[in-house]
């Protein structure tokens, strides 16, 4: 199985599918090709949240704004999974989530037909090759990569009643997913929480408030989410990716 | 085979794919993940129109605006097809179309990791389970559901020369699909029809009028459609979903 | 393997998938269903650029603005590939690219359930039939088509330092892909080129200029592309599909 992720929209992903299918009978599964253009951080977040739900697979991911420059081409071994993509941090959060002891390899002979579409000319053939022979150490053109480009997401500061967090991503529904752990909110579910001085219901699910009303809940990523039932939380709360957000909960009973 | 339908956009459907593929080798086929957010009626219409073209399959469909509330989780047996989704009416029109004697079962132990993404945590594993063992009666956690939430579409009123209908959906081309049966229009194809007092050509296909011109035709759903050749019928006719529309045809020859 | 291309958006392609899977176990691979509505030329360009990356397959492509009119239904044999689609020029550029000696056949008995969705009622079943029996000559309902509708893209005029070209398509990133061959630009990579009197860097890849800055490069189609690093080239250069564009390069050293 090979999963495919990119910010290519359409129809460029089809060229990658064609190249792979010329080399391999692998089952192809799309993650998304609509990641925000060139936004390595947002894609890295989603890969970390989505790929661990898959059985062992080769995961091809190409969000590659510096394609054609000198950036390395990586293969990552993380447990039974393999990751293939550019060395720009994209693969690191999911690799760490899949297996803390992940190891990286870089391609030593990047010989591409194009300088602008390595997804088709470098990453897709490499993913197919890894699918057919999953041991990176057995490929003469792969060498251990000692210092891959890192990428990490900040932790929220939790201090008594106050959580100082950051919006990690806005999802397609407009939910603002923060880095505040769901455990911080769970004890006060059913009550209220102050979000940047606006008091909002803390609830277990979206429809616990009326349509069009704001809410705070624990989302499917296990983080605290700011949302509007049937609407866009980012707009109601006036938040974008990377914005700081401060939440205060009532004092908990001892 | 498992088909997947949702209003999740991207990348959430990929988590469902991963969960299913961890349990089953089923072929996965996407219906759409771009159904209008939370619009159970529109998705129910399209499922009814599209799924019957499939060979027997498990159809997973998650348009679930009250996820996490007490709504039931349904498995429907309709002929050789199985439907899996929330008990909010979504599955009823297609079930009736597939087999008038469809039967429903509800999941008795909903134990989800999240309250906001049952697509991933409840419906996807259930669809995989049903794919592996398609007899709902054999699953101890499924019990007959006696009174599933209903959903139906209104019939048009046909009275001599006049048809009083409703716009059921607007498709992606902007065609306004009404509930007026195509048979009402077919006899006057080649002539004209009055739509809310505007006279429009009744034609057999879009390109029978000039580009940019309005038309009335029998669409692929067998209903009367209001369209513009190469343009958007909803805009030209000023119509939205659920709007009433009155059409008058000339007197037919005896 | 059957690939699917259309301008249908969603959910209409799913009906084609269902019909095919009722007739065949073929692997289905999506090229795109987001080709610009009714734009045969743009889709023909992308089919030519993408399909040759696939191993031998049946390629179903339905951009069919005159569906239901008298236009023919074509099957094309191009090497080991088969193409199925309307006779409006859509298939010709890719057929020529796949095999200069391609041959065409037309369906002699178009008997469709609808006049508005031949993708579902005519092309999909025909693609499944061709997949099961790939020799068009063996089908009694297919006859040689002697004069299929043509479609070609203009060549750029190259005259010393000047290239007079045309924008063939704008891709989803906003890159304006011209018909000027990449070989014309390659010798001056690293220098500058005048594009309609604005001097722009000629570079090997997008990130060779700062974010937000314009550039000229050889794209993945081997044509000269006008782009903005991390932005939209069509907007910066003020160009749309079919626009003329004149480029001047410095005199080359002998």
Task: Walk me through this protein's architecture.
- Three copies of one chain form a homotrimer.
- The first copy, chain A, is of the alpha+beta class and 254 residues long.
- Chain A has two domains: 2-144, S-adenosyl-l-methionine hydroxide adenosyltransferase, N-terminal (Rossmann fold, 3-Layer(aba) Sandwich); 157-248, Bacterial fluorinating enzyme like (Elongation Factor Tu (Ef-tu), domain 3).
- Chain A is 21% helix and 30% strand.
- Chain A has helices at residues 12-23, 40-50, 92-98, 118-132, 182-185, 233-237; strands at residues 2-6, 28-32, 58-62, 73-78, 81-86, 103-107, 142-144, 157-159, 162-170, 176-181, 192-195, 198-201, 214-218, 223-228, 244-248.
- In chain A, strands 8, 9, 10, 11, 12, 13, 14 and 15 form an eight-stranded antiparallel β-sheet that branches. The first copy, chain A, has a seven-stranded mixed β-sheet with strand order 2-1-3-5-4-6-7, with helices on both faces.
- In chain A, α1 (12-23) packs parallel to α4 and α2 (40-50) runs parallel beside α3 (92-98).
- The longest helix of chain A has 15 residues, at 118-132.
- Chain A binds chain C through residues 8-12, 14-15, 17-19, 21-22, 28, 37-38, 65-69, 114-117, 120-121, and chain C through 1, 3, 5, 29-35, 46, 49-55, 171-173, 204-208, 217-220, 222, 225, 230.
Summarize this entry quickly.
In chain A, helix 1 (12-23) runs parallel beside helix 4. The first copy, chain A, contains six helices and 15 strands.
């Amino acid at each position: 199985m090979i999963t495919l992720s990119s910010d290519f929209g359409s129809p460029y992903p089809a060229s990658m599918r064609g190249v792979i299918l010329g080399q391999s009978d692998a089952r192809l599964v799309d993650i998304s090709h609509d990641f925000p253009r060139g936004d390595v951080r947002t894609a890295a977040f989603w890969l970390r949240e989505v790929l661990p739900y898959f059985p062992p697979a080769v995961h091809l991911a190409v969000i590659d704004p510096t394609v054609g420059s000198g950036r390395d081409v990586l293969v990552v071994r993380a447990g039974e999974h393999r990751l293939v993509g550019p060395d720009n941090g994209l693969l690191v959060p999911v690799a760490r989530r899949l297996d803390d002891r992940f190891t990286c390899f870089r391609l030593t002979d990047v010989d591409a037909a194009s300088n602008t579409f390595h997804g088709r000319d470098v990453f897709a053939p490499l993913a197919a090759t890894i699918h057919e022979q999953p041991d990176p150490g057995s490929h003469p053109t792969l060498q251990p990569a000692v210092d891959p480009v890192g990428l990490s997401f900040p932790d929220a500061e939790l201090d008594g009643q106050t959580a100082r967090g950051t919006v990690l991503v806005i999802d397609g529904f407009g939910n603002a997913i923060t880095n505040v752990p769901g455990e911080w909110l769970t004890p006060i579910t059913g009550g209220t929480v102050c979000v940047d001085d606006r008091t909002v219901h803390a609830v277990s699910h979206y429809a616990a408030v009326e349509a069009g009303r704001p809410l705070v809940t624990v989302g499917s990523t296990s983080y605290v989410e700011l949302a509007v039932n049937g609407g866009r939380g980012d707009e109601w709360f006036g938040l974008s990716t990377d914005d700081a957000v401060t939440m205060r909960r009532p004092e908990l009973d001892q």
